[in-house]
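Model: You mentioned two targets. I'll fold them one after the other.
Researcher: Yes, keep them separate.
Model: Target one:
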Amino acid sequence: MSASFVVTVIGGYFILLILISLLTSRKTDSNTFFTGDRQSPWYLVAFGMIGASLSGVTFISVPGWVVDTQFGYMQVVLGYLLGYFVIGTVLMPLYYRLKLVSIYGYLEDRFGFWSYKTGAFYFLISRVIQASFRLFLVAGVLQLAVFDAWAMPFSVTVITTITLIWLYTFRGGIKTIVWTDTLQTLFMLVAIGIVIYLVSEDLNLSFGGLIDTIKKSEYAQVFFWEWQSGSNFFKQFFSGAFIAIVMTGLDQDMMQKNLTCKNVGDAQKNMFWFSIVLVFVNLLFLAMGALLYIYAGKNGISLPDKTDDLFPLLALNHFPTIAGIVFLLGITAAAYSSADSALTALTTSFCVDFLNFQREDTIAMQSKQRNTRLLVHLGFSVILFAVIMIFKVINDEAVISSLFKAAGYTYGPLLGLYAFGLFTRWQIRDKWVIPVCLLAPALSYLLNSNSEAWLGGYRFGFEILIVNGLLTFIGLVFIIKRKAVPTPQDDQAVH
């Protein structure tokens, strides 16, 4: 495929996104930007969340990961189901009861000012890191497919990518995101289906033969039981549960979509159906990964040094042109479905949690908040660019692994704070929350770095997130006030 053709395809795709943005951003204000006026159909939110949850990381890294972990990632995915159950039955009713715009407002009600700001700060750090990782992937693909041929530097690719996101999100916010994510999820799933079909045709496999080939391959093992291994089932399953809780239930980005539903019942239906479908979609990604390696072996194709490069290599250089087109649309849709909502959520959190945005009462206030919101939106776009460039310099491993490692340290304090708030009635000395939430990730990192020497060869996997949250919880115990007082959820229950 020529670079010009690729640009034409992707350009057409973004014209479509901008048209959706124009249609959904009419008569919008900050409330619409942040909450979508709480009018989103639950099934639309559920479908769009699939794309936002998977992202370009899943689209590229999970298929490549099969060579190292086989189908072991499904252990994590099964754990997601438990995590989503907790979100739907515990967290969502709480958020809707408190009528939150930013979910970190709960921490202020429960503990106080500094807990609130600490939680919001950790979200900003976490989401900036994740969004940057994900955009790094799609920018790398565009660099390979387009900009290398034009001798354009990687920085130009990144600027172009972020600018396009900014153009279709800066007006409509979350209302636009709900609709564009639906389109992006559709493109992503169609891309998976077409690639699997084309590979199966090349391998001359029927549907039954396809399943049988994957089952008999060296990549098919799902469950791992060796205790010291980071791939142990119990470690992976419970890590998956907690990853789902923190990266969805305690994440403004993901919950902001859920809070656009009309009521908590609709939000719970969204979460239930989304979680079920997500399991099967992840299974499709792993199946596609196994088929890609089988295809490469059959055709004598040399494997790339980095597993993240396998899918782009085959799609752009070895598959028919149609596969290359759907791959580019799929990876673009997958990456942008998470990055666009991340940018909107970062703007929402900063405006509500740090600039104290309230519902506009006057036309002058509406105009002032709108201008400020645009500047914040632009500011986070610049920050994403800077972090992506840093990541390009330091990246030396599969992106999905890096993503979850980062989340283990940045989401741990949020896990500890929310667990303490929900499962105890103690109040804490609010000003001491900051040192506790700084110390817990530091100790987690120290323990993870030395676990094999200190713990008889034990290696942490994703469960370092649980350790981080536990250390935060223990730290909060040391700063409790002597007398328990009713919590906000207790008060709500009484009334």
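Model: Target two:
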Amino acid sequence: MATVHSDSAIAPDDEGPGEAAAVVSFAVERARLVQPSWAQNSAQERAAIARRFSSLVLKSQEQILDVITQETHKNRLSAFEEVLDVTLLAAYYAGTAPKLLRPVRRRGAVPGLTRTTQSAQPRGVVGVITPWNYPFTLPASDSLPALLAGNAVILKPDEATQRSAALVADLLAQAGLPEGLFQIVHGSGPSEGAALVRAVDFVQFTGSTATGRLVAAACGELLTPMSCELGGKNVMVVLSDADVEAAADGAVRACFSTSGQLCVSMEKIYVHRDLEDAFTQAFVRRVQAMRIGPGSDWDIDMGGLISTEHLHKVMSHVEDAVAKGARVLTGGRRRPDLGPTFMEPTVLADVSEEMTLSSQETFGPVVSLATLDSDAAAAEISARGEYGLNASVWSRSQGREVAAQLIAGSVNINEGYTATWGSHDASSGGWRSSGVGARHGREGLLKYTRNQTVSQQRILPLGPSCVLSNASYHALMEKAAPVLGAITSRLPARKG
């Protein structure tokens, strides 16, 4: 049954083939009524709400952590990543949005005679579609910059994590966000999700590459702009000069945070042959020492997977690999004694190309180890496959040189994913089949806007006039063009 969650109203939930479209239409129409007045508020006023929201998230963390761990089965430390991320991102945009949204003077056609200003105008109503793996971070981090840009937001979260999404709505309301600007539609992706894509002015989607292609096709048909983060088969490379112990520590976090159900987590590790034995021993030892189980104890290193269906899918990748000759270095088993969605963190070796997990995203606590023949081979390994989301390089001295050669939208040096993800001032997005557009930074805010250029001509028109014939205008501009070009190329941009 489809419903709308907002700060004051619930849409009718009548059954029928048109229910999804009706629910979405109800939410969008309401959003369009309130969005213009919201856009008229100053960026500073909107930023004040983001600042209060940031504070409220931190103050409400115990409730947030409880809900996240209950809905996703992830361990409490992984859930805290979401609280910390949202708190810091909200504070970042509260401080930067007013500056980024300020109108900017641009070089006019004729200096002194043409005054040109470029401004960022909100798109209107933004549709945000989020998955279950980061049920608090993604609804908040994708919706907040859209709101700060002057838009209204309709959120379609995954059905497995409705309570986490509702917390975002509740905290935004407590922070002072006017009614109707942030609403949540509940229902299936093929119904409510598809209806949302057709109804809004911009789509922000996070999910699988397969679904992302469908969303992109629908947006293309309607000429609706979109941004999406999709799948990944992320690679970690351990170069010949890496600190083995530090790399092994980092690999545990990079592979098994949120039980491996993270788009930017590592699923393949390539280790320079000189360090292969030492790294493998250090890494396997640490994985075997991990504490897995249910509950919200801070000492638990890894929780369960989101569902039994997803567990079966992840285990099928492991079983397929083992049947085709892969070796299990540790893990590889379900743990029904801990709960129906639990499995051991798993490390495999001798994974070959015909195995499913070699190329397909596993999205679980499974990683394969392979040999890096030389440091120079890291670039060639990165170029394999269709994805380009995240990568990790471990090195004492070659990190930046190698990072620049990898095909990935984000590359972490001596870290797995948190260094780039936590750098909110820098954009984060996938290459190739891993996405279009980016979140965070300047781009993460301005993608929710449209550029409007306004030019005011003074004194003389840009063309022949009552005092200039066509021939006279041509002669004048022919001589003036080199001078105008030289002047405009040197004029600095100014705030509007």
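Researcher: Noted. Anything on target two?
Model: The two ends are 49 Å apart (CA to CA).
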